[in-house]
UniProtKB/TrEMBL annotation:
GO biological process per UniProt: DNA strand elongation involved in DNA replication
Keywords from the UniProt entry: Cytoplasm, DNA replication, DNA-binding, DNA-directed DNA polymerase, Nucleotidyltransferase, Transferase
Protein function: Confers DNA tethering and processivity to DNA polymerases and other proteins. Acts as a clamp, forming a ring around DNA (a reaction catalyzed by the clamp-loading complex) which diffuses in an ATP-independent manner freely and bidirectionally along dsDNA. Initially characterized for its ability to contact the catalytic subunit of DNA polymerase III (Pol III), a complex, multichain enzyme responsible for most of the replicative synthesis in bacteria; Pol III exhibits 3'-5' exonuclease proofreading activity.
Subunit structure: Forms a ring-shaped head-to-tail homodimer around DNA.
Residues of the DNA polymerase III beta sliding clamp N-terminal domain: 1-118
Organism in which the protein naturally occurs: Posidoniimonas polymericola
Claim: Iron is one of the keywords in the record: no
Protein name: Beta sliding clamp
Location in or out of the cell: Cytoplasm
Taxonomic path: Bacteria, Pseudomonadati, Planctomycetota, Planctomycetia, Pirellulales
Length: 371
């Protein structure tokens, strides 16, 4: 194998896959990254057998096709620490030689045949959607998942596809985020079914490896597996097993609730101010919606009290609900600050439901007011 490459571009591609290689593994070869070079492309591969990625590097001139195994930490350091613009990399069965204008490194070689094979996206039937929207779905749902729960299914985002609409749901049992939007089926792809729960770690990898300007991404569902392909990357993930909550029952169907339209940026500032005087023992903030204003009140015996007032358009009877400000802030952080959302309230004992006009919904369970 012999290539000449732009160091900065190679570093960018290497960093996209390096996080997948485990730092410790019963199979030591997994702690490395594989580089496969064909006549016209160079592709980095990494896997821990649960998640895998193929990522095509740019700025590479191929002189001789082949493959090599690169030690993740040391090769990453070489790429980061060098100031050379161009690298020449040559590998045989004994050594990998990395040579820049003013530097040279010789690395011990391993047999690339020993590296586990990684799935290839060769499905003729798949789902297709805009890369930017799919990344938005990930960003707006993944923060509600719970990787620490003994219920493993809560550590991922549940995905369903019905009549051209893909729905992603994340929950930790105390709040629930749902995002839905159009996704086209090409051919007759396998059904998402009732058990497509994608680990949050895999979705974080998709978010990092796929760019907003990648155009379309393709999604294939196989038995207990999901593959996502962009023009440059392919991410493979095993799906989580376990029973997922019936999320539709969490979204209340109300006829006697009140809705209030809230501007995101001023509301975000008010919640952050009210959260200052909360503590681990007293997290709740009272949100009181009265005529013409919203008052946020925080109280923690060992810290103090806060009162923040925000003028709003509200002419219904007064409603007070106690919420964890962290959950409210998490929701507001993933929205555009110059837009608004609708808050649906019934009383202080029922869930608060937040919705936007682009298919996003978020449910927060209230805290007890006697604290």
């Amino acid at each position: 194998m012999k290539i000449t490459c732009n160091r900065e571009q190679l570093l960018q591609a290497f960093q996209a896959v390096a996080a997948v290689a485990p730092t410790r593994s019963p199979k030591p070869i997994l702690q490395n990254v594989k580089l496969e070079v064909s006549d016209d492309s160079a592709t980095f591969l990494a896997t821990d057998l649960e998640v895998a990625i193929r990522y095509q590097a740019t700025g590479v001139e191929v002189e001789q096709a082949g493959a090599c195994i690169l030690p993740t930490a040391r090769f990453g350091q070489i790429l980061r620490e060098s100031s050379d613009e161009t690298f020449h990399i040559e590998a045989d069965e004994k050594q990998i030689r990395v040579r820049g204008e003013r530097s040279q490194f010789n690395l011990a070689a391993e047999n690339p045949i020993d590296y586990p094979s990684i799935a290839v996206f060769d499905d003729q039937s798949y789902y297709e959607t805009a890369a930017r929207w799919f990344k938005e779905l990930i960003r707006r749902t993944i923060f509600s998942t719970d990787n620490e729960s003994s219920r493993y299914a809560l550590g991922g985002v549940k995905m369903e596809w019905v009549d051209g609409v893909l729905t992603g749901v994340g929950t930790d049992g105390r709040r629930l985020a749902k995002m839905e939007g159009p996704v086209r089926a090409v051919g007759e792809p396998a059904d998402f079914g009732a058990a497509t729960i994608v680990p949050s770690r895999s979705l974080n990898l998709v978010d990092r490896a796929v760019n907003d300007d990648d155009g379309e991404v393709q999604i294939a569902i196989r038995q207990n597996e999901m593959l996502v392909k962009s023009p440059r990357a392919m991410i493979y993930s095993r799906l989580l097993e376990g029973r997922y909550p019936d999320w539709r029952r969490v979204f209340p169907q109300r006829t006697n609730s009140v809705q209030v339209e809230l501007p995101i940026e001023p509301f975000y500032r008010a919640v952050r101010q009210a959260a200052i005087l909360t503590s681990d023992e007293s997290r709740g903030v009272d949100f009181t919606f009265g005529e013409g204003s919203l008052v946020l009140s925080g109280h923690a015996a060992e810290v103090g009290e806060s009162r923040i007032e925000l003028p709003i358009s509200f002419d219904s009877p007064e409603v007070t609900i106690t919420l964890d400000p962290r959950f409210v802030i998490d929701f507001l952080k993933v929205l555009d600050s110059d837009k608004s959302f609708t808050l649906d309230l019934q009383d202080g004992e029922s869930a608060a439901v937040c919705t936007t006009d682009d298919g996003y919904g978020y449910v927060i369970m209230p805290l007890a007011r006697d604290r």
